[in-house]
Amino acid sequence: MVQKLALITGGTRGLGLAITKRLLQDGWRVVVCARSLPDAPIAIADRTADVIAGDLRAPGEPDRIMSEVIARFGRLDLLVNNAGGSPMVEIAGSSASLIEKIVALNLTAPLQMARAAYPLLRESQGGVVNIASISGRRPAPGTVAYGAAKAGLISATQGLAMEWGPCVRVNALVVGMVENPDQVDHYGGPEGIARISALLPMRRMAHGADIASAVAWLASQEAAYVSGAAIEIHGGGEIPAFLSLAKGG
């Protein structure tokens, strides 16, 4: 039986690392793409992820990365467009170059990676999973460019699913707030995380493993008829803050 190959962008830390470890655990051969090499090999049991260094925003990088995948592995069954993010900054205080970088990382790069991967995915009857964000569904003050890019990624997911069916399935995960050890300060520290968790129906933020499990399902034959989906993983949604204020919370 041929071992399937997954390419995960931004797969060396945070949410991407959780996805990498889950697919390794499930028996996939995994290649991670990141701007810098990890401090230590990413391994589960006797399986270790391969690494390709590269900046997805640089002209020509998606094609170079895919050429390396072809040369080293000769196949691709799954592309996970996970790399993304944005600093907290209002548009009025942003430079034109910062806005371009945010859109390039969160929308243009995933599109270019999908385009470059298409011939290999068509051959393997594989799939693409785009990691989108709830910021693409609701207002995102402080991260407007990021939210707009993620909204575009959700739209692109549905359009590509129509263009590429039935050979390649394309789906998105619309991810809510994820508890990440690297971003504790972003949420106001442990106390801030506790306050946010109290406003979520599940009473906690997502863990990386929650998102990784959804990726694993979308990549499996159990989801063979799922394409063009934008699956919201946010623990039931964010309870509006005004309800808490109205109750004196």
Question: Could you give a quick summary of the protein structure above?
Answer:
The chain is α/β, with parallel strands linked by helices and 249 residues long. The protein has helices spanning 14-25, 61-73, 96-124, 144-164, 189-198, 208-218, 241-246; strands at 5-9, 29-34, 43-44, 47-48, 50-53, 78-81, 127-133, 169-175, 230-233.
Question: Which key phrases capture this entry?
Answer:
7 helices; two-stranded antiparallel sheet; alpha/beta; globular; seven-stranded parallel sheet; 249 residues; single chain
The percent range for helix content is 40-55%
Outline: globular
Mind summarizing the main beta sheet?
7 strands, parallel
Structural class assignment: alpha/beta
Beta content:
15-25%
The value of Rg in angstroms is 18 Å
Number of strands: 9
Q: Between the first and last Cα atoms, what is the distance in angstroms? A: 57 Å
- Helix/strand order: EHEEEEHEHEHEHHEH
Count up the helices. 7
Any low-confidence stretches, pLDDT <50, length ≥5?
Answer: none
What would you note in describing this structure?
- The mean pLDDT is 92.
- It is built from 7 helices and 9 strands; from the N terminus they run βαββββαβαβαβααβα.
- It has 249 residues and is of the alpha/beta class.
- 39% of the residues are buried.
- α1 crosses α6, α2 (61-73) runs parallel beside α3 (96-124) and α3 (96-124) packs parallel to α4 (144-164).
- A 7-stranded parallel sheet has the order 5-2-1-6-7-8-9, with helices on both faces. It has a two-stranded antiparallel ribbon with strand order 3-4.
